[in-house]
Design a protein that fits this description.
The complex is a heterodimer.
Chain A lengths: L1 H17 L12 E5 L6 H15 L7 E5 L6 H8 L7 E5 L2 H9 L8 E10 L2 E5 L7 H10 L6 E5 L4 H9 L9 E5 L2 H9 L5 E2 L3 H9 L3 E6 L34 E8 L4 H16 L1 H9 L7 E2 H21 L6
Parallel strand pairs in A: 1-2, 1-3, 6-7, 6-8
Antiparallel strand pairs in A: 3-10, 4-10, 4-11, 5-8, 5-9
Helix pairs in contact in A: 4-11
Chain B lengths: L1 H6 L2 H19 L5 H8 L8 H26 L8 H12 L3 H35 L3 H15 L7 H15 L2 E3 L4 E3 L13 H19 L15 H8 L4 H16 L4 H15 L12 H16 L1 H7 L5 H12 L8 H4 L1 H24 L1 H6 L5 H20 L2 H19 L5 H24 L10 H14 L1 H16 L1
The chains are: A alpha/beta, B mainly alpha.
C-alpha cells in the first residue's frame, strides 16, 4: 500500500516536472453540460448553440453532452451538479433560477456550492404591449394601470415567482398600490403569442422571444429594463432598432432588471480546471457566430470572469433576495 | 413549387433517407423520443444550410412518428406518448396474430393524417395561423375538457373503477413543481420527485412491464407467436381500409385542429380514439383488436404532429416538444420564426413543406416494406423476447432523464399495471389524466386568474362556448343516448 502511494507520488512529481512545458488541464472524458431548464427555452438555445460552436470550430478535444434537467424550476439540474463536487467534467448554464429557485422553493442549494466560470451575457427584458394598444409609452401604460381598477391589467409571464413575476412586482411600486393580475405560462414564446391574441395586456418578454412578433407589427416595445439603451443600431422593423427603445428609467419608470446567462462548474475544482473552461468560453465568444447570436437576441454582451464575476453574482443574489422578500415570494 | 426542386437534390434526398431511418429507430426505442433525438443531432446541422438541416431534422420527426407505433403494436410498449392510444387495439390485434394488419393500418393511416395536415398547411397556412391566436387559457381548458369528456365511459367495467383510475392519474400528475404558484407539491423533500412522475416512465411500466408480468403468469406463452407470415398483408389490409373513411376523416379534422391550436399529438390521438369508439357501430368491441381502433389514434396523432409545425413557423410557438427543439434550431441557423418567415424565407419554408410530402412518402415505403420483418419478431419464443423487452424498457426509462430512480419507478408502475389488469381497473383513464392533468390544471387556473374566479369565462365568447358545450354534450352522451333510446321506444310502443 505504502509502496503504491510512493510510486504514485513519484509519478505525480514526474508529471509536475513535465507539466509547465505542456498546456494545462484538459478534460479526459466527455463533459456533461447541464441545462436547468426545458428544451426550446432561452437557456437551452444558448447551451446548444455553444455546443454547436465548439463542435464547428473544434475548440475542445472531448465532446460536450448537453442534458436538460428542468425539474422543479431547475432544482433538478442544480442538485445534480451540487451532488458531484470536484468533478471537473460537469458544467451548468444558469439563468435567474440560480437565485429564484432556492429562494422560492427552499431547495437546499446555493450558487456557492459551485465554481463560477464566466458570465456570457446579460439577457434583456422589454415591456411589451399589443400594437393596437392605445398606450405609446411606459409612462402612459403605467398611468393607465394606476387609474384603473386593482388587478384590471393582466401581465403574462414565464413561470411563477421567477424573473417575469419579480419584474411585475417591481413595476407595481410605481402604480400607486394597484396590482397587475399576473398569469404564468409555460414558455416565453407562448407568452408573446398570448399578448398578440390579446389574452393579456402586457408582457416582459426577452427580446428573442418577442422579436418576430415585433417585426411583423403585432407588438409594441415600451421600454427596456436596463440602465442604458441597447447598442444594436440595425433596424429591426422599418422604423426602429433595438437602440431606439427607451430605457424604463428614461420613461420615468425606475425599474432595472437583467438576467444572468453564465456558466458554472462543479464546486471545489482546481484553478487549472476552471481556467480551461474560462478559456473555452472566451474562445466561443470570439467567434463571429456568437456575435450574430448576441445581436439576434439583443443581448447585453457583458463578459465577466474570475473575481469580478463572483462579485456580480453576490450582488445579484442580494438583489433577488430583497426583491423576493418584498414580494413575499420567499419559501417559508 | 420550387420547393420540390430544393428537396430533390441528391444530397437532400440522402439526408431525408438518413433522417427517416434514424427517426424510426428513435421512435422504436421508448424513452429516446423525437425531441431528444432531434436535440442530440441539432449541433451536427450547424454546418449545413438551414434548408438541408430542417429537412433532415423534420424527417427524424416523421420517422419517430412512424416508429412509435411499432413497439406499441408488437409489445404493448408505446415508444412515444402519442402511441399510447394505439396500444389499446393494436396490441390485441397482434395477440390474435394480426400484427401485420395492425402495422399496415397504423402506417397507412399515419400517412393519410400527415398528408391531410400538409395539404392544410400548404393551402390554408395564413388563415389557420390567425385562428391559433384566438386560443387563450380558457380555450385551451375547453379543449382539454373536451378530450376528457370524449374519453369518459372508455372502461368496459364499472364507471367507479374508471373514476378511481382517473383520479389516481390526476394525483400522480400533480406531484412536482406547481407551475402556477411556483411551489413544490407532494415531493416530501426528496430530490427525485422534483420532476414529478414522468409520463413515459409510467407508460413503459404500466403497459410494457405490466404486459410481461401478465404473460409470465399465463405460462410464458406469448400468444402472438402463431402469427403467420403473409407477404401480401399490406395489400390485403389496404382493401379493407377505405370502408373506414369516416373514422379517418374525423381523426384528420381532430388532429389538424389539435396541432394548430396547439394542443399536441398526444391529446389528439386520445380524442380520436375516444370519438371513434363512441361513433363506430362496433364501438363496444373496441379494445379487443378493432382495426378502427388503430386507424383513429394514428391518423389523429400524425395529423396533429404535422400541423404542429404550422404554429411553430408562423407564430414561434411550438405545438410539440420536438417542435420546440426545432424552433431552437431555426434561431441558431439565423432564421426568425414568425409571421414574416413565409415571406422572407420562401426557399426554406417551401423546401420544408415539400420535404413533408416527400418525407412522408419515403417513410411510408420504408416502414411498409419492413412490415413482414417486424411481424416476424413475434415468432421469436417469449422466453427469449421477454428479457430483451425488459432491457429495452429499462434502457428507455433510464434514458428519459439519465436517472436510475426512473428504472425503479418503471418497475413499480409495472406492478401497478399488472394489478390493474387483474382487478379489472382500466389503465387508459389513468394514463390520460397523467398526460393531460398538468396542462388542464394550469389552463384552468390561468383562466381563473384572468377572470378573477368567474366561471363564466368558459362561455364568454362563441369559440370557447362551442368547445365547452361540445364537451358537456359528450360528457353526458351516455345519458342522452339512453334518453333518446327511451323516447324512440316510447313512440314505437
Amino acid at each position: 500500500m505504502r509502496i503504491k502511494k510512493l510510486l504514485l507520488g513519484m509519478v505525480a512529481l514526474a508529471a509536475l516536472a513535465v507539466a509547465p512545458a505542456q498546456a494545462a488541464w484538459e478534460p479526459t472524458r466527455p463533459v456533461t453540460f447541464l441545462i436547468p431548464a426545458g428544451t426550446g427555452g432561452g437557456a437551452d438555445q444558448m447551451a446548444r448553440f455553444i455546443d454547436g460552436v465548439v463542435k464547428k470550430h473544434n475548440l475542445m478535444r472531448q465532446n460536450l453532452i448537453v442534458v436538460n434537467k428542468a425539474g422543479g424550476a431547475g432544482a433538478e439540474g442544480f442538485l445534480d451538479i451540487k451532488g458531484s463536487p470536484k468533478d471537473p467534467h460537469k458544467i451548468i448554464i444558469t439563468l435567474s433560477n440560480l437565485f429564484t429557485t432556492p429562494l422560492a422553493t427552499g431547495t437546499p442549494f446555493n450558487w456557492k456550492d459551485l465554481t463560477p466560470v464566466a458570465m456570457l451575457a446579460l439577457d434583456q427584458f422589454v415591456l411589451w404591449v399589443n400594437a393596437e394598444s392605445p398606450h405609446k409609452t411606459a409612462q402612459e401604460y403605467l398611468n393607465a394601470v394606476k387609474a384603473g381598477a386593482d388587478r384590471q391589467y393582466k401581465m403574462g409571464g414565464t413561470g411563477s415567482k421567477q424573473e417575469d413575476q419579480i419584474i411585475t412586482v417591481a413595476l407595481e411600486r410605481v402604480t400607486g398600490g394597484k396590482k397587475f393580475t399576473y398569469v404564468p405560462f409555460a414558455g416565453g414564446g407562448a407568452v408573446a403569442v398570448q399578448l398578440v391574441g390579446k389574452h393579456v395586456d402586457s408582457t416582459v418578454n426577452n427580446p428573442i422571444e418577442a422579436v418576430a412578433q415585433w417585426k411583423a407589427g403585432a407588438l409594441r416595445p415600451l421600454c427596456l429594463f436596463d440602465a442604458k439603451r441597447s447598442t444594436y443600431t440595425d433596424k429591426v422593423t422599418s422604423t426602429m432598432a433595438w437602440s431606439d427603445i427607451p430605457t424604463c428609467k428614461e420613461s420615468g419608470v425606475n425599474v432595472e432588471y437583467q438576467m444572468l446567462r453564465g456558466i458554472f462548474a462543479a464546486g471545489g475544482i482546481t484553478k487549472d480546471q476552471t481556467d480551461f473552461y474560462v478559456n473555452l468560453m472566451t474562445k466561443v465568444m470570439q467567434t463571429p457566430d456568437w456575435r450574430t447570436f448576441m445581436e439576434q437576441g439583443a443581448f447585453n454582451p457583458t463578459v465577466l470572469t474570475g473575481n469580478e464575476y463572483r462579485k456580480w453574482v453576490e450582488t445579484a443574489e442580494k438583489t433577488h433576495f430583497d426583491l423576493m422578500k418584498e414580494a413575499d415570494f420567499l419559501h417559508k | 413549387m420550387g420547393g420540390f426542386l430544393v428537396v430533390l437534390s441528391p444530397f437532400n434526398l440522402m439526408l431525408m433517407l438518413v433522417g427517416i431511418l434514424l427517426g424510426v429507430i428513435i421512435g422504436v426505442l421508448p424513452g429516446l423520443g423525437g425531441a431528444n433525438g432531434v436535440a442530440i443531432l441539432l449541433p451536427l446541422t450547424f454546418s449545413m444550410s438551414p434548408t438541408s438541416a430542417i429537412i433532415m431534422l423534420s424527417c427524424i420527426y416523421w420517422g419517430a412518428l412512424f416508429g412509435g407505433a411499432i413497439t406499441s403494436i408488437l409489445f404493448n410498449i408505446p415508444g412515444e406518448p402519442w402511441s399510447v392510444a394505439t396500444t389499446f387495439d393494436g396490441h390485441p390485434m397482434a395477440r390474435k396474430g394480426r400484427a401485420d394488419e395492425a402495422l399496415t393500418a397504423a402506417f397507412t393511416s399515419s400517412f393519410v393524417g400527415a398528408l391531410v395536415a400538409v395539404l392544410v398547411i400548404t393551402f390554408l397556412a395564413p388563415l389557420v395561423a390567425k385562428f391559433a391566436l384566438k386560443f387563450g387559457p380558457a380555450e385551451f381548458f375547453a379543449v382539454q375538457f373536451l378530450t376528457f369528456a370524449s374519453f369518459i365511459g372508455m372502461g368496459k367495467g364499472s364507471p367507479f373503477k374508471t373514476l378511481a383510475s382517473m383520479t389516481l392519474g390526476f394525483a400522480l400528475a400533480s406531484v412536482g413543481l406547481d407551475s402556477v404558484t411556483g411551489q413544490l407539491r407532494m415531493t416530501f423533500g426528496t430530490a427525485e420527485l422534483l420532476t414529478g412522475f414522468k409520463f413515459l416512465v409510467a407508460v413503459i411500466g404500466l403497459f410494457g412491464i405490466g404486459e410481461i408480468l401478465g404473460s409470465m403468469e399465463t405460462g410464458l406463452a406469448f400468444t402472438g407467436a402463431h402469427a403467420r407470415l403473409r407477404l401480401n398483408a399490406v395489400l390485403e389490409t389496404w382493401k379493407k381500409l377505405p370502408q373506414y373513411w369516416m373514422t379517418s376523416l374525423r381523426s384528420c379534422i381532430i388532429g389538424c385542429w389539435m396541432g394548430i391550436t396547439p394542443g399536441g399529438a398526444t391529446p389528439a390521438s386520445f380524442m380520436s380514439y375516444g370519438l371513434a369508439k363512441r361513433f363506430s357501430k362496433d364501438g363496444h368491441k373496441f379494445g379487443t383488436g378493432q382495426i378502427e381502433g388503430v386507424i383513429a389514434p394514428e391518423t389523429g396523432a400524425h395529423a396533429a404532429g404535422t400541423s404542429a409545425l404550422l404554429p411553430m413557423l408562423t407564430l414561434g410557438i411550438p405545438g410539440s416538444p420536438t417542435a420546440a427543439v426545432l424552433l431552437g434550431g431555426l434561431l441558431i441557423w439565423g432564421l426568425q420564426p414568425g409571421p414574416l418567415l413565409f415571406i422572407e424565407q420562401k426557399d426554406f419554408v417551401w423546401g420544408l413543406i415539400a420535404s413533408m410530402y416527400l418525407g412522408n412518402i419515403v417513410g411510408l415505403v420504408i416502414v411498409l416494406t419492413c412490415v413482414p420483418l417486424f411481424a416476424a419478431i413475434l415468432r421469436v419464443p417469449f422466453s427469449i423476447i421477454a428479457p430483451v423487452i425488459m432491457v429495452i424498457c429499462a434502457v428507455g426509462a433510464y434514458t428519459i432523464n439519465n436517472a436510475m430512480f426512473d428504472v425503479w419507478m418503471m418497475g413499480v408502475f409495472g406492478v401497478i399495471g399488472y394489478l390493474f389488469n387483474k382487478l379489472k381497473y382500466p389503465l387508459p383513464p389513468m394514463v390520460l389524466a397523467l398526460v393531460l392533468g398538468d396542462m388542464a390544471e394550469s389552463s384552468f387556473r390561468q383562466s381563473m386568474l384572468l377572470s378573477q374566479g368567474d366561471l363564466s369565462i368558459f362561455w364568454s365568447n362563441g369559440l370557447v362556448g362551442t368547445i365547452f358545450g361540445l364537451g358537456v354534450i359528450l360528457l353526458f352522451w351516455p345519458v342522452i343516448s339512453w334518453l333518446m333510446g327511451m323516447a324512440r321506444q316510447g313512440k314505437t310502443a
